[in-house]
């Protein structure tokens, strides 16, 4: 394709894109009306012309028949022929019916003819129809010397009595009037065609505008919905069925947006609340410390306790950053095949000190290979493990079970014999900043973000995490990593 044709095509498609639906429908209406009217006009024209031709041919054939009868009854009486022919073709001629007749002898000499016929139609311009004695069924169209259109027919007369020569009959019908009728008809048809196209375009425009009105209305309804009116819905109004689908999809989107908005504002409210308490504590401590002159050891104590708060705050900020990154669209996961047992054993080494201090019996069983991001996998497991250690009193137990299922999924469960969670709080565990009152006493440094992180890590992996718990008996958290698609191509760490 040359660059010029490519350019033309691009221009054309750009024009098509920019055309409104109303304009497109108007054009389509006009084109369809044009095609329909043009086809009807052509068919009607053909019917009219062929009907007229049929009538004319019938007329000429019957006239020839009449002249034959005349020649038969008066075989030698040219005077009678002349009288009859003049009466028929001149006296009874009118604007609507004008025809000429000529009778020739065997040698082609004109015996009788309508006066003035030779000036318009020479005898040689007629077809002879061989030697047929039957009048032709179809005349021949030709133009006379003065430009008038004629339909002509010729025939041999019936043989006369013995001794008489054969005669030829020539007959010509003036078609000027019929031609004028056809021309007039065609002119009117053309006007009807143009008017028809124009009116169809107008109707098309009105129909399209009316038909598309619901779209405009829905656009207007949608325009009124801002961030402060996300609770409003579009589908509550009565819409035509086609627009209803659009309205419902739009409402579904509004619902999602509203939920995100609510989540976001609840989150910022929680965040403000979570930050306010430690900052107020820090401020209060600093104010009290500065209230009067103090010993160096007292200052040291204040700074030490402040450091704990700072540590908690910076952990909270790190966790929030992690969540923000995990939820952003461009988070990429670097999948590797992980030997779950090896990873968990390595992780448990970190908790050696605390398990010995609290006399917690830790057991781990089972083996499995799974596909996950190693850093995120460790983070998820250590969040749950640290909860188990934090919320399990001395002399408790923690049990880890790794199982590779037949369907290829890997289940890792971490159970503890800790303080447990009340049933009414179980569903809130994954909410950001949520902490049970008992947990706050047990482990005041917690931020309430650990489980939110676990959940978003599992979402990123397309896996799941569930929790079961009974107050004072313990808690079990189960991770499910689904069957990896292509584990053979991944190296086991
Ligand atoms: N093993 C468990 N036993 C009892 N309660 C638990 C256990 N794990 C979680 N919880 C409850 O769930 C809450 C949320 O846990 P999550 O790990 O999200 O936050 P956190 O442990 O309080 O703080 P951090 O963000 O520092 O982990 C905890 O505060 C606690 O009330
Ligand atoms: Mg935790």
Strand order of the largest sheet: 2-1-5-4-3
Q: How many helices does DSSP assign?
A: 14
Largest sheet: 5 strands, antiparallel
- Indicate the radius of gyration in whole angstroms: 53 Å
CATH architecture of the largest domain, please?
2-Layer Sandwich
- The low-confidence runs, each spanning 5 or more residues with pLDDT under 50, are 487-493
Strand content: 5-15%
Q: What can you tell me about this protein's structure?
A:
The chain is an alpha+beta fold. The protein has three domains: 24-183, 2-Layer Sandwich (Beta-Lactamase); 241-326, Helix Hairpins; 332-489, Histidine kinase-like ATPase, C-terminal domain (Heat Shock Protein 90, 2-Layer Sandwich), CATH 3.30.565. Helices cover 55% and strands 15% of the residues. It contains 14 helices and twelve strands. It has helices spanning 3-18, 21-73, 78-91, 117-120, 176-211, 213-223, 241-291, 296-327, 340-350, 352-357, 374-390, 423-426, 437-442, 450-461, and strands spanning 99-104, 110-113, 140-143, 149-156, 168-174, 336-339, 361-365, 369-372, 397-404, 410-416, 464-470, 474-481. The strands form three sheets. Strands 2-1-5-4-3 form a five-stranded antiparallel β-sheet. Strands 7-9-10-12-11 form a five-stranded mixed β-sheet, covered by helices on one side. Strand 11 (464-470) and strand 12 form a beta hairpin. Helix 7 (241-291) runs antiparallel to helix 8 and helix 11 (374-390) runs antiparallel to helix 14. Residues 383, 386-387, 446, 450 line the site of magnesium ion.
